[in-house]
Amino acid sequence: MKIAVLPGDGIGPEIVTEAVNVLNALGESFEMETAPVGGAGYEAKGHPLPEDTLKLAKEADAILFGAVGDWKYDALARELRPEQAILGLRKHLSLFANLRPAICYPELTEASSLKPEIVAGLNILIVRELNGDIYFGSPKGIRTATDGLFPGTREGFDTMRYSEPEVERIAHVAFQAAQKRDKRVCSVDKANVLETSQLWKEVMTRIGKEYPDVELSHMYVDNAAMQLVKAPKAFDVVVTGNLFGDILSDEAAMLTGSIGMLPSASLDKNNKGLYEPSHGSAPDIAGKGVANPLATILSAAMMLRYSLGKADQADRIEQAVQKVLAQGYRTGDIKTEGCKLVGTREMGEAVLKAL
Ligand code: NAD
Questions:
Q1: Cys-Cys crosslink for 7: which of 16, 108, 205, 350, Cβ 3.0 to 4.6 Å?
Q2: pLDDT tens digits, residue range 207-231?
Q3: Per-residue confidence (pLDDT) for residue 122, from 0 to 100
Q4: For residue 153, how far is its CA from the centre of ligand 1 (angstroms)?
Q5: What is the reported pLDDT for 287?
Q6: Is 137 part of any domain?
Q7: CA distances for 264 relative to 15, 126, 191, 340, angstroms
Q8: Which of 196, 228, 261 represents a domain boundary (last residue)?
Q9: 42 in a domain, yes or no?
Q10: Ligand 1 atom 38: residue of nearest CA
């Protein structure tokens, strides 16, 4: 199995090193090859997603990605900015399903802004469609209005659209993920107002019949936003479109209070995927050896489960992470009173020892 390792910028190389060490300790024979991406790609080859890097990503069975971006590239033309690398990879590899688990480890309930009893033991999965919706629908633009309340004035407009096959494929991802969990899917839409959502709901219901072992419910997005902070543990898998998923996945992430702990996966139709922490490149702490590597290590675990068919090894990593938290190891972003405060390297070492 071939893994493309793309560390990127900022804290990317530091945290990816720890995840690679963990993968190497599993006793599997992975072939890992590293390539520059983001600002590092621009420095090395003049483009955030160099041709060789894209070729490697295409050839690999899975991609382990650190993070990209640095304020020093802000003056570059949009197409040369580091963040274009991630958009390019999603497009070229047809990664349409974004999976973001929000897990609140009992040891870290204090990090959440919600009451401990509401979040302790939380384990939900947000499945967000990544390629469609109002972000990509055309036409879009800014024009002079010919109708509406203020004709003759400038107006901005976007198009929300989803085709049946787009909804079908994300539905299958959500139902199959639920089969590996608590077997419940909540489809989030705004079908009381939007035609796009009406079709979304219809298709979800139809595909749901192919998974009789999974319970399907529907919820309007405004209610889902409320329920996520009121009773988040009531959810198992939440599936939704690009726009609603963008907002709800960040809300769900924050329930756990610790961005340094959250992995993510972006999958294509064959479960090939790109795995990365949910956070960015944190240029403010880059090179200081203090970044939390656990989100990246947990992303490697997701890679084993979803792309490489090694769920048992994924379990081992997740249990090792839980163990180091129980042992009191904390990086600065998740530190608690009386904890063992450690840096990136020491946290990685602690996970290796726990493995
Ligand atoms: P960020 O997630 O990089 O950082 C936000 C805050 O969280 C910072 O204070 C940072 O120090 C802290 N933080 C993040 N990850 C951490 C970790 N593992 N351990 C400890 N602390 C951590 O977001 P930002 O500051 O808004 O963005 C910085 C750069 O990252 C920008 O260039 C942005 O475009 C880029 N970015 C990249 C991705 C990606 O590569 N997918 C995602 C988001 C942001």
A1: 16
A2: 999 999 999 999 999 999 999 999 9
A3: 92
A4: 38
A5: 96
A6: no
A7: 14, 10, 27, 27
A8: 261
A9: yes
A10: 280
